[in-house]
Amino acid sequence: MKTPAPHPDTHRTQPADVCVPVTGRSQRVRVTDPKVFGRVAVLMGGWSSERQVSLWSGQGVADALRSRGVDVVAIDATPDNVLQLKAQGIDRVFNVLHGTGGEDGTLQAVLELQGIPYTGSGVLASALAMDKLRTKRLWSAEGLPTPDYLWARSRADLDEAVRRFGYPLIVKPSAEGSSVGVSKVKSADQLDAAWQLARGSRGDGVVIAERFVAGGAYGHEFTCAIVDGEALPLIRIEPDGEFYDYHAKYLSDATCYHCPSGLDATLEQKIQAICLRAFECVGARGWGRVDFMLDAHGQAWLIELNLVPGMTSHSLVPMAAAARGMDYASLCWAILETTLAPIAEHGR
């Protein structure tokens, strides 16, 4: 991890790495014997636009759990084979099936019906978090900071968004992950392409236009990983390009990540508490990631919630866990331990 260069900060009183952990509700049942988990299916791949990222994530998780002695079956998920997991002798699931099907409550419902414990959040929280529009509505109702937005039901609504928010602004789909379909629009001649991209290949996706948050001395793109009720150290992101898009996330070696983030310790703890509240207010559990922007005044603005985050070599949850002293295999083990809670407790 790249250590950030010093930034002017007259309010810094202590280094970020002495922050007291911000914690919520723990769910883990600590074990040392891999046999306790039984036969574990790592679900990956799938049928969403994030299929390749999921395959990368799943291979990493499967290898890590095997290295700790867990009986792992790596499964490239299809709508058919996820219905047969119980019949195949699967005892629990580590879900890294990103996007549609695996992250939106569909898989969670299938696993609930089969009585199979699984990593991550339940049906309702998963469905809410996958829908960025409704997540923002919930956060706003709870008094949590999220950038002003407009539900663009037609191309003409983007012109209204420009009148409200000015340039640049963000145009994105409500129900995609990994920054698929997201555009930073800086001029009128980019609106048509952004509209088409956000609506997806079928041309029927829900589109959000969002006020762009300009950063200050620290930069403005950050994320907060959450594992078992603990907000891990914040990560500051310097993307390779205009913003943290798919290329910058998964393909570029020029994107820089700073953990510790370089923020004042008190500010970091305040933001961690906001992110933990944003995570819990949708009913999320187990693990996940909250992405936010930081403006020039040090105000955090919640962008989106990821309840099946990436676990690739470029991914942010493993990076934050490492800053907390947890290696990749230990992180995978800890996430799997959350499935040992009673299923009635875990899945709702």
Task: Give the key terms.
Rossmann fold; globular; seven-stranded antiparallel β-sheet; 348 residues; disordered C terminus; four-stranded antiparallel β-sheet; Dna Ligase, domain 1; alpha+beta
CATH architecture of the domain at 34-119: 3-Layer(aba) Sandwich
Rounded to an integer in angstroms, the radius of gyration calculated over CA atoms is 20 Å
- Low-confidence runs: 1-18, 343-348
Secondary structure: helix percent: 25-40%
**CATH class assignment of the domain at 34-119:** Alpha Beta
Content of β-strand = 15-25%
Anisotropy-based shape: globular
Order of helices and strands: EEHEEHHHEHEEHEEEEHEHEEHHH
Query: What is the first-to-last residue Cα distance?
Result: 36 Å
Individual helix count: 11
Class from helix and strand fractions: alpha+beta
The count of DSSP E runs of length 2 or more, i.e. the number of strands, is 14
CATH topology of the domain at 34-119: Rossmann fold
Instruction: Average the pLDDT over all residues and give the rounded result.
Output: 88
Organism: Fontimonas thermophila
Pathway: Cell wall biogenesis; peptidoglycan biosynthesis
Family: Belongs to the D-alanine--D-alanine ligase family.
Cofactor: Mg(2+); Mn(2+)
